[in-house]
Amino acid sequence: MSPIISVSNLSKTYGSGFKALKDINLDIVKGEIFALLGPNGAGKTTLISIICGIANPTEGRISIGGHDIIRDYRAARSMIGLVPQELHTDAFESVWATVSFSRGLFGKPKNPDHIEKVLKDLSLWDKKDNKIITLSGGMKRRVMIAKALSHEPQILFLDEPTAGVDVELRKGMWEVVRTLQQSGVTIILTTHYIEEAEEMADRIGVINKGEIILIEDKATLMQKLGKKQLTLQLQNRLDAVPPALAAYSLELSDDGHAVTYDYDTKGDRTGITSLLNDLRNAGIRISDLDTRQSSLEDIFVSLVRQV
Amino acid sequence: MNYRAIQAIYLFEMARTWRTLLQSIVSPVVSTSLYFVVFGAAIGSRITEVEGVSYGTFIVPGLVMLSVLTQSISNASFGIYFPKFAGTIYEILSAPISYFEIVIGYVGAAATKSIILGLIILATAGLFVPLHIQHPVWMLTFLVLTAVTFSLFGFIIGIWADGFEKLQMIPMLVVTPLTFLGGSFYSVNMLPSGWRTITLFNPVVYLISGFRWSFYEIADVSVGLSLGMTAAFLVACMVIVAWIFRTGYRLKN
To answer: Which of A48, A83, A88, A105 would you mutate first to test chain B, the one with the most B CBs within 10 A?
Structure first.
């Protein structure tokens, strides 16, 4: 299947000479939730801005549903709903007016039923006649999502959608995003909350210093890099791992009182049973054990550090 | 053409006008009335006639133009500056809408507002002095042309400005002096010949002269020249706007 968004060889150099993006290649599959992770200033927002038409690319091409974003900008842009990171709203407009305005701006005929549904889904219905300036930060964020959904986009960009949103509301927004995905909308989100990507995403891209350093299915990523680690506390100090246990590539702690064993829970065999057997055969006694799984956050931190 | 988007921007901007009706309409009407009291009644009583027209009547077209010029610029510059300032411009830039359509929406709304205002001021003037308009069609043509041209000019200022000070600077430092010196309150023929020549470099002279001609058939310069100069300024503004959008100046980086 051809990708719904295709970014090829995209580079962006600002007037100051700063290279914000370097040769980005990225395909987004229709219907997926793609999470773009990266530290501050990595280029996430620049990438989204270029795709949505807010900034100009320096080099490279982008197509949305087969439409080039420059040559065929009308067709390309009408597929996209954008929720930017900053809370940019018209202070003195009512919620209803600003959301209806967005729909008109994207060239869609009036449809009060759709606007009503969007506002209800985002728990904004009882605020529809309020001026935006009177709303809380979390509500303003949802108004911006409502604006982006007002014209029934096939692709939704959420740039840090849950920044400054409390836990309760965040869960509610995840629900909205999932429902959207079920209705066939492709979602690209950037986030600082790794937990959010872990919870929501089908695929994950990591961007750092303007370069995409990894794109992977979340499950594969978790499996590939998300090893489990078993730590065994030993009753007696060991000077070295006995040769009989070499096959397990155990790592001995500095004090000689613990060994760690990396294994893969998704594999056919974890090797734990035989390891414990072989330890007993070697006369090594265990006083305690502990396992831990590396989270996406560990993976992310180690990836960004490497570069 | 994305007509719905043009309509959305136009109605959005007009809604802002209705919301701020008091300062939009009332304050220009009050200041025009003040001009009438000061120039028309107090000073005008000492100046009997200018080129066969009573002074109070003579200044009506100039006063209307003064308001239309300044209001067009301030409406249009604020209209586009505010989304830039508030950040809501992101939505306009990401919408499936051409630059041409953006300009029609914003400039159309700003011009509409100042045309309505010009007509209100004309009606207010009618309360002070008897009005008669010799060429109503030409009067409207000059009114619309001026409103559109200076709304475009205001749009350019709104895009160029990166602070509220700059937004005020051009209207305060350039447009108001040009308007005052452009024959709003006097006939250019009343000036000594050296000044008259200098005055002819002021574009506003042509606007006011042409507009006054449509009322009383008296003009400082020929009507054709007035029309030509106004059209030339309109084209110049269009060229600059086209350049702004082509390069993304102050809008996109």
So the answer is: A105
- The residues pairing with A230 across neighbouring beta strands, listed in sequence order, are A261, A291
The C-alpha of A55 sits at a distance from chain B's nearest C-alpha, in angstroms, of 5
Which residues in chain A are closer than 8 Å to B95, comparing Cβ atoms?
A: 77, 105-106
Instruction: Report the number of distinct structural domains present in chain B.
Output: 1
Task: Work out how many CB contacts closer than 8 A connect A with B.
Answer: 75
Asked if residue B92 belongs to a domain, the reply is yes
Q: What is the pLDDT of residue A224?
A: 67
Q: Could you give the domains of chain A? A: 5-223 (3.40.50.300), 227-294 (3.30.70)
| Residue B11 distance to chain A (closest CA, Å) | 9
Q: Is residue B252 part of a domain?
A: no
A156 close to A110: Cβ distance less than 8 angstroms = no
The rounded radius of gyration (Å) of the Cα atoms in chain B is 19
- The structure's pTM equals 0.85
Instruction: Cite the DSSP H helix spans in A166-236.
Output: 167-182, 194-200, 218-225
ipTM value:
0.87
Q: Is residue B170 part of a domain?
A: yes
The domain of B126 spans: 3-247
